[in-house]
Each structure stands twice: as structure tokens, then as C-alpha cells.
Amino acid sequence: MSVLxxxxxNSGELSVDATSKAVTAAKLMGDVTVxxxxxxxxxxxAEAAKID
Length: 52
Description:
The chain is α+β, with helices and mostly antiparallel strands. Helix content is 38%, strand content 27%.
């Protein structure tokens, strides 16, 4: 199963702790895709890509 995770992004900053915990839990269900949406979300997306 594939999982789409909506990441928490505030003022262009990724909430790394919350997103990391959510990714860890979502991995138990299958492949994870993280969506960072909003203004200035590119940097947050790059940071989310580093989460393992």
C-alpha cells in the first residue's frame, strides 16, 4: 500500500520532529510519499526528502 503524508510546514519551515515521527509510523503501512504544500515549501520539501 502507498501512503501520502501531508507534512506540517509553518512559514516555510518543516516541523521535522512531527514529520519524522509520522514517516516512521507510515512506513509500517507501505511506501511513503511526503507532500509539503504552501508558499516557500521548496526548502521544506528538500528537508523532508532527507528523512529516512
